[in-house]
Design goal:
heterotrimer; A alpha/beta; B alpha/beta; C alpha+beta; B: Rossmann fold; seven-stranded parallel sheet; 18 strands; C: alpha+beta; Butyryl-Coa Dehydrogenase, subunit A, domain 1; Butyryl-CoA Dehydrogenase, subunit A, domain 3; four-stranded antiparallel sheet; 16% strand; globular
């Protein structure tokens, strides 16, 4: 089985702090990580490789520094890595990102494509289903479990109040939830090998995709403005003995007619 | 085709088991306001099987028109048949705006359709408005885990599409005797669009009230120390007629179920009263609860960010204050019922 | 001179740190409290190749280098001194002498399973009457046809009982003194070999420290490691390497204690402000960090010399001496900054202080290190 895992390198948003004075994001010193949903997707691919045998290709679109995320994937056990990088791809929204990634994946042999459900810096959950659409494949999103049964895949698909067990034939695309598994660690030897391996780079000219479908130009949506959320006016904060605190809070509820 | 050729606001009215989702009604409520600015109508699109009772309900909450597609294939949600039907509806009616709930269905369906009809899609919006002059939809959403907000427009493509977070918009008060125009939409070759099979449906069992439905939430975080202390929260929630929610820390630590989680990666809530106990208030958490009407925070750290959004804050030991507070509230309730 | 880690080493370090934080730290308190060997962590470390980091892939190892192995011990020890020494004793004291002195067959039979983590290793040199003066060995080995017969006992053996393979020293010719000592590879299952009493210790309490007992223990002739009579030199060379491992353990303990202390002094308030706001705290923290960095440079230098195949005996002794004394000084200071809480088991610094003490004692006391260093200068 040939599996392509599409991953994204993201800033660890749990580490992103706001500069209280200026209201801007402090990105300095924020570590870059493989997006958690994507990492679970990679782990799912590696488990299929362990169980039934597979060739796992990991692919990312991003700046040259994103290569480190691919090295990490190789150190975990991926067989091959592809970096899709070009200034022409910059400024893309999910539409242009997915059409670029789809044109890259189209060059590969694949039975199964796995992406994360969503990236923690954007939280859109769009790129996976959009890649599937561009490639004309069925997709199953929000996968919490994935296993092979006969010549089909079975997916435990999560909803708010239920699960669907879905049977899907390959080729198809699955979007993985971080809850799916506990990704393995890299091994020390895997890390040393990963830096010996070649990472294939694909640029604009390597992809068969229209200029009108990539980068900023190919993006139907535009960010008009971005801003930090206005915090609501400071309320009353008190420090009192527990008994007094309880009384004070109860009085406030009376005041607000909640009691 | 020019933008002007596209008219009307369409809402994907998600139903499961014949029951409309709250977000569908919230979207109709919001769409009514947008429609006023655009001088147009609101159409609800509902897909399923044996759902003839829903158009009237959608009308009561404000839909001017309902497009209904019924087929056994549409009884249980799967991506492709739904995407196909909605795409056909979009092609026929050419709406200028299509809104979806940012649910596990909407967030799967909408991107497929956006790629298919080649238009933009903005995910997880928390605010929508019409831009003066252009009439474009301005879609505002949190990014970077709620650290920043971005306002996004889709000026050159139609329809403009967005998924909207449940619990953010407000539904209208239902009216009696609503008579929306009902269009039945049929797709003859739907079976050809089935590409996956749902072999089993497993419902999650949760006896607790959905935190998005509760008027009062008593929420616990790291400061609660451990799952055993969540009893204190349950006691207070019970007296106030609410339920218990939590921060991400408490979920990650395995103290409470994921469906209790408030915040960017959990649920957005706007209860009448939100009581944050031992929650420091990471920005991701604040993003999910700051719209609550009244916010109370109890935390031992006076510099905790939760105090910046709290109406009433108490610096102190939540373990000591909670039982006393619960007792006081209980007494106050009793006095009131005796009065 | 280059003070930067290369890409591989930095990524490996991050991985060790992540593993330590998630898999090792949560158990550190309990295994100390219960004096329990962390078997579940050891299983995970086997799976991820932590037991063969510096050895070639052909021999079951990870194909990395000495510094990467040393950083593994350091990162593990930051959160748990016990876990650090399990890897260190296995690698430096058992796998290493077999890698350096073993025959092709011995490497195939013993190093491959050790390096791939299938087997755990230990080292038996110390005896009740032969500690710092290792030449006073009483354990005897007598050649009898195709095997040696070992009699005697060893004490304070790290990984004792949990290890499958032991590098053991015994007198083959008492009359020759240290030149009569030979090294052997002993399997746990060999007849006549048993595990004696388990020590109750002040620190590294999760680590198994036991007696080894040899009663007419049969060791095949081909398990002689190196030449007969060259055992003392095998032991001394092995300990040179082992000292870098213990130095890394000491370094990690010091770093871990400082991390905990920095976190604590920022939170803890006295006289209306955090204790980090007091100059006394600030200066102590600055001094501790400076000592720790100096120790780290000594430890890494020794590791890199060993990697390069250069002489490193004196440098390893200096690294261990300084790192161990730094660990003891830093952990003591950290307990002081924590005040009363530091003395309780509610916070990890008292455990770290207890763990630190052993690094001044085992694999050559600080006094022995001073002897090694001064001998090199005064000879």
């Amino acid at each position: 089985m040939n599996i392509v895992v599409s991953i994204k390198q993201v800033p660890d948003t749990n580490e992103v702090k706001l500069d209280q004075a200026t209201g801007t994001l402090i990105r300095e010193g924020v570590p870059s990580i493989i997006n958690p949903d994507d990492k679970a997707g990679l782990e799912a691919a590696l488990r299929l490789k362990d169980q039934v045998g597979a060739h796992v290709t990991v692919l990312t679109m991003g700046p040259p520094q994103a290569a480190i995320a691919l090295r990490e994937a190789l150190a975990m056990g991926a067989d091959e890595a592809i970096l899709v990088t070009d200034r022409a791809f910059g400024g893309a929204d999910t539409w242009a990102t997915s059409s670029t990634l789809a044109s890259a994946i189209a060059k590969l042999d694949y039975d199964l494509i796995i992406t994360g459900r969503q990236a923690i810096d954007g939280d859109t959950a769009q790129v996976g289903p959009q890649i599937a659409e561009h490639l004309g494949l069925p997709n199953v999103s929000y996968a919490e479990e994935l296993w092979v049964e006969g010549d089909t895949l079975k997916v435990k698909r999560q909803y708010e109040d239920r699960y669907h067990i879905i049977r899907v034939k390959t080729p198809c695309l699955i979007t993985a939830l971080a809850e799916m598994n506990e990704p393995r660690y890299m091994t020390p030897g895997g890390i040393f090998d990963a830096f010996q391996k070649e990472i294939t780079e694909w640029h604009r000219a390597d992809l068969d995709v229209d200029d009108s479908n990539i980068g900023l130009k190919g993006s139907p949506t535009r960010v008009k403005k971005s801003f930090t959320k206005a915090v609501k006016g400071q309320g009353t904060v008190v420090t009192m003995e527990p008994e007094e605190s309880a009384n004070w809070l109860t009085d406030r509820l009376r005041e607000k007619f909640i009691l | 085709m020019s933008n002007e050729a596209y008219k009307g606001i369409f809402v994907f009215a998600q139903q499961v088991d014949g029951k409309l989702s709250n977000v569908a009604l919230e979207l109709i409520g919001k769409s009514k306001a947008l429609a006023k600015d655009l001088n147009t109508e609101v159409t609800a699109v509902v897909l399923g099987n044996k759902i003839g009772h829903l158009p009237e309900q959608l009308g009561r909450y404000g839909a001017d028109r309902v497009v209904i597609a019924e087929d056994p294939i549409l009884e249980t949600y799967t991506t492709e048949p739904y995407a196909h039907v909605i795409t056909e509806i979009v092609k026929k009616y050419q709406p200028e705006i299509v809104l979806y709930g940012a649910t596990a269905i909407g967030r799967d369906l909408a991107p497929r359709i956006s790629a298919r009809v080649h238009t933009g899609l903005t995910a997880d919006c928390t605010s929508l408005e019409i831009e003066e002059g252009t009439g474009n939809l301005l879609m505002t959403r949190p990014a970077f885990g709620g650290n920043i907000m971005a306002t996004i427009a889709c000026a050159d493509f139609r329809p403009q599409m967005a998924t909207v977070r449940p619990g953010v918009m407000q539904r209208l008060t239902p009216v009696d005797n609503a008579h929306p125009v009902v269009d039945t939409f049929s797709v003859p070759d739907l079976a050809e669009h089935v590409n996956v099979e749902v072999v089993e449906v497993i419902k999650k069992v949760s006896e607790k009230m959905d935190i998005q439905e509760a008027n009062v939430l008593v929420s616990g975080g790291r400061g609660m120390g451990g799952p055993e202390n969540f009893k204190l929260l349950e006691d207070l929630a019970e007296v106030l007629g609410g339920t218990v929610s939590s921060s991400r820390t408490a979920v990650d630590a395995g103290w409470v179920e994921k469906d209790r989680q408030v915040g960017q990666t959990g649920k957005t809530v706007r209860p009448n009263l939100y009581i944050a106990c031992g929650i420091s208030g990471a920005i991701q958490h604040l993003a999910g609860m700051e719209e609550s009407d009244v916010i109370i925070a109890i935390n031992k750290d006076p510099s905790a960010p939760i105090f910046e959004v709290a109406d009433y804050g108490v610096v102190g030991d939540v373990m000591k204050i909670l039982p006393l507070f619960t007792e006081q509230v209980r007494k106050a309730k009793e006095e009131k019922s005796n009065a | 001179m280059n003070f930067e880690l290369n890409n591989e080493q930095s990524m490996a370090r991050e991985m060790f740190a992540a593993f330590a934080e998630k898999e090792v730290k949560p158990l550190a308190h309990d295994i100390d409290e219960e004096e329990r060997f962390p078997a579940e962590t050891v299983e995970k470390m086997k799976k991820y190749g932590f037991f063969g980091i510096p050895y070639p892939k052909e021999l079951g190892g990870q194909g990395c280098d000495v510094l990467t192995y040393i950083m593994c011990v350091e990162e593990l020890s930051k959160v748990c001194g016990t876990t650090g020494v399990i890897v260190s004793a296995h690698t430096s004291l058992c796998a290493d002498p077999i890698y350096k002195y073993g025959t092709k067959e011995q490497k195939e039979k013993y190093l491959v399973p050790l390096a791939s983590g299938k087997k755990i290793g230990a080292f038996g040199l110390t005896e009740p009457g032969a500690g710092t003066d290792a030449s006073g060995q009483q354990t005897k080995a007598v050649l009898d046809g195709d095997h040696y017969v070992l009699n005697g006992s060893k004490i304070f053996i790290t990984n004792g009982g949990v290890a499958d393979i032991y590098v053991v020293f015994a007198m083959t010719d008492k009359s020759k003194g240290v030149k009569g000592i030979s090294a052997f590879i002993v399997e746990k299952e060999f007849p006549g070999f048993s595990i004696g009493k388990k020590e109750k210790k002040m620190g590294i309490r999760g680590s198994a420290t036991t007696e080894l007992v040899f009663e007419n223990c049969i060791v095949p002739k081909e398990n002689l490691l190196g030449q007969e009579g060259k055992g003392f030199s095998v032991a001394m060379t092995t300990l040179d390497g082992g000292r870098i491992g213990i130095a890394a353990q000491a370094l990690g303990i010091a770093e871990g204690a400082l991390d905990e202390t920095i976190k604590y002094v920022k939170e803890r308030k006295q006289f209306g402000r955090s204790i980090a706001a007091f100059q006394n705290t600030q200066f102590r923290i600055a001094d501790m960090k400076t000592k720790i960095d100096a120790a780290q440079l000594l430890v890494y230098r020794a590791a890199m010399l060993k990697q390069a195949g250069a002489k490193f005996s004196t440098e390893a002794a200096m690294a261990k001496l300084f790192a161990a004394e730094t660990a003891m000084a830093v952990t003591t200071e950290c307990v002081q900054l924590f005040g009363g809480y530091g003395y309780t088991r509610e916070y990890p610094v008292e455990r770290m202080m207890r763990d630190a003490k052993i690094t001044e004692i085992y694999e050559g006391t600080s006094e022995v290190q001073r002897m090694v260093i001064s001998n090199a200068l005064l000879k």
